[in-house]
Every structure is written in structure tokens, then in C-alpha cells.
Amino acid sequence: xxxxxxxxxxxxxxxxxxxxxxxxxxxxxLAFQQQYExxxxxxxxxxxxxxxxxxxxxxxxxGVLKTxxxxxxxLPKYRIKEWLLSDIISGVSTGLVGTLQGMAYALLAxxxxxxxxxxxxxxxxxxxxxxxxxxxxVGPFPVVSLMVGSVVLSMAPDEHFRISSSNGTAFNTTVIDxxxxxxxxxxxxxxxxxxxxxxxxxxxxxxxxxxxxxxxDPLVGxxxxxxxxxxxxxxxxxxxxxxxxxxxxxxxxxxxxxEIFQNVGNTNLADxxxxxxxIIICMAVKExxxxxxxxxxxxxxxxVIVTIIATAISYGADLEKNYNAGIxxxxxxxxxxxxxxxxxxxxxxxxxxxxxxxxxxxxxxxxGKVYAIKYDYTIxxxxxxxxxxxxxxxxxxxxxxxxxxxxxxxxxxxxTGGKTQxxxxxxxxxxxxxxxxxxxxxxxxQKSVLAAVVIANLKGMFMQVCDIPRLWRQNKIxxxxxxxxxxxxxxxxxxxxxxxxxxxxxxxxxxxxxxPSWNGLGSVPSTDIYKSTKSYKNVSAFVRHxxxxxxxxxxxxxxVLKNVSSPQLDLMPLEYIIxx
Length: 580
Description:
four-stranded mixed sheet
């Protein structure tokens, strides 16, 4: 019988086990440095560093110029015979989709539909010169457009534009001055765009593109899913054509939903049927495009097809007159002259502009990196800040709202063969044709169809919910961050929700440092294999003790380790295996 506390002898290894022997020379540190000729790093003085940094040569100047104007680097290398046809096909396809999405996302930004066309045109012109991604399609995006709309509605609600109107009786009624309201909202949106661009340009100039690292994937996933839910609710009332108050801030989405359901009896059937059919058809055809993308050379532009058919039906049946359907009505023809937005409004929108600037940048860089990795090139995070900053500053003078990139539109540009931003310029040309010549033809289009197009494009963001089980298996804290950010953004609103998600993410880092996980590792006799002493009974921990640390190792965590109660840790030398 074994004595209490004695260690069991390890069982003999099976006969079929293999073994290996590693043989290498033994070096001292000095001998290793001498044999392999260690390079000594010379420390430069501050004066020498400044002199080198301020030195100027033709080669250095050309390099700086190409960094600030990436078009000078890639355009001379453009392969006309190989790439031009693909870029033309891609540009036309992306331009058609961009035209429709620009109009649709203008509803989210709370500005007249026609201004979405400007927002789908002007940012492309400057990004072509300053951007480093070859594949992203620059323009409006639902999440950012909704954040812009939240600011616009809070600063220019309908209540500010009610005027008394005499109807020929003893009683006066109040009506909304839509012209004054829309003019004010366009000015607010363009001012916000200018301010966002200034912030992005400053961030790029200060070389703080690293800020996107703090927007971890779980946080961005939860935030964009919540934003998709907010977009869905905001477009639902347009599909039903029911009026609600403009709510902002905490629980605004709940109040909006309650009012929508209270007024659901006032639904306009013509708008509802048109919107529902558009959602079903668009989602079905998009599924076909995804499943058969290897067989279909160009994705079916279903949004464009549906829009053309819906416009023809609305015009032929005169849905506005006969069924009181909500239509686009007026789209400006041609371009508006540039104007300086009222910078006096900056103080009222400064806080929101910071979050919009960071979110817009994070979305663009995240999408850009996906295609940069796929096609083996790099994008410069700091230069992207500068590119979008200049694009938004430029666009702000032309009555646009904030630009970033749209996932679906970028996917179209890439899948149809787009090689460079030449495709982007061609897509801008298609949008320009719509602005100059086709705007009048789209005026009978129902707003519910545009809202339905927005909803149909939310599928990808809603599907991020499927990431939760995977995150839970990989890292439970990441899954909790995803869920917390999503719920906070729905309840508190996008601005406060993003801030709450960031704070919660930082809190989890502090908690992981204060309450770290560690595991003692013991060696398997006669091998260099180490396993957990908690999980395996016959591993030896007497030669040396290893700790498997599941956290960042620095001074604070070292203090935690000193408080670990284990007599072996006091007697044996420690080695650390750091993971995470």
C-alpha cells in the first residue's frame, strides 16, 4: 500500500510510442554574439535625429509627395490593357447601385432625397487622389447616415418649423414649413460633414490612426448590429407611411416603436405593399447573387431594376393622387454652387462629430483591410484619416452628408472586376448623369421603395448576431462586450452606446489584470512536454515551475503573482509562458 502523499510512478509508455532527440551546440551569450556578428545599434543624439528628419533630398521629397498623394504612386503603374475594361464595367455597376443608395440613405440623414446624390458623387473625387485603398466604394453608409440624421433631427425638429395657417374660417391651423425645415437640415448636415472632416484631418495629421485598435471586432459588431436595428425602425415608419415624433437620446427607439404601433392603423396600403414587395424581391435576388456569384459574371442590380419598375408604376397609376402615397416629389437638377456652412453651429455638434468621425473611419479602414489582404497590398491608416478628412471637408461645401464606405457597394465594385479607384471615378460619372439628367424622372418614386432598399441591405449587419456563439466559445468576455455594446447602443442611442461599449471594454481589461487566470505547468518525465499540474496527476513540477499566463504581463500582474499562495513558487525558479 502506498504511503499517504507519495506520488504515483508514471505508467510505462506504450510500445508504439515514438521519440525524438534534438542535438544543437551549446553557446554562451558572448560566444553566440561573436560567431553570428551581432550588429551594434548606434544611439543617435537628438540633434542628429532632428537633422536627419529635417533633411531634404529629391528622393525623400518624392517619397513624401507619394505618401500624401497616393495617386502619384499607383496611377503611373496603371495597366490600361489589363484593367481598364474591368474598371469600366465595375464603375458602371457600382454607379447604378450608388445612385440608388445615395437617395435611400438621404432618408436616414433626414435631408431631401436629392442631396444623397451629391453625397454619392463629391467624396469620390477627392478620395481618388488621397486614398490608399483600391477597392472601397466611397459614399454614404447606413450607420453613419443614421448618426448624422440623429444630429440633424435633434437640432431641427418639425416643431421648430410650425407656422399658423388660416383656412378661411374662424380657426387657424398650424402646418410645417417644409421648405424652411429642409433648408435648415441640409445646412446642419453639411456643417456636421465639414466638422467631421476637420476632425479626421487633424487625427491624420497627428498620426493617430492607431485609434481604430481600440474599436475591437466584438465592440464594432455589437455597435453596427444595434445601428442596423435603429435603421430598421427609422425606415419602418416610412414603409408604412405613418407619422411619428422625432425622438432622440435614451430610449428614443422604444418610444418610436410604441408610436409606430399606435398609428399602425393609419398605414398607407400602397406604400406598404410597394415596400414589402421591394424587400422580398431584393433579398431573394441578393441571395441568388451570393449563391451563384461564381457563375454570374456581374451581380444582378436588383435595386436599380426594382426602382425603375416602381417609378413607372407610381407614375402610370398616379399613386400620390389616387392613393396618397408618399413620393420623392422634388430632386434638384444639376449642381448647387458651393457655400460655406455656418461654422457657428460647431459648438452644438462637437461631441457627436467625434464619434461620427471615428466610426466612419473605422468602417472604411476595416473594409479596406479586408480587400488589401485579399489582393496583397497595404493601406495606410493615417493617410486614410487624411483622405476621408479632405473628402468630407470638400463635400461639406457642396451640401453633402458624411461619407465613408458601404459594404454592399464595395462588394459590387470588387466582384464586378474593379481593380483601382478608376472604377470609383467612373461610378461618380454615372451618379453625375443622374444628377444632371435623370433626377426629374425619379420624382414619382415612392419613398417606401427607397426605405425598403435600405432595409434589404441590412441583412449582413443583422447576421453578425451569429458571431455570438463563436465568440462565447473563443473568449466569453468578448461575447459579453458584443452583447453589452449592442444593448447599450439600442437603449442609450448610438453616441452614448458606443461610449458605453468603449468604457465597458476598458473595464474588462482592468478586471482581467486584477483577477488574472494562471495555470501551473509540470513536465512529463523524459520529455519536453509540459501539462497542467491541476489536470494531470503524474507530471513533475520539481525541476522548474512554469506558469501559463492568460493575460498581459507587466508590473501590476507581477504584483498579483507575488500574492499567489504556493510553496513551490517560493522555492523554484519561474518561467512564464504568456498567451493572449
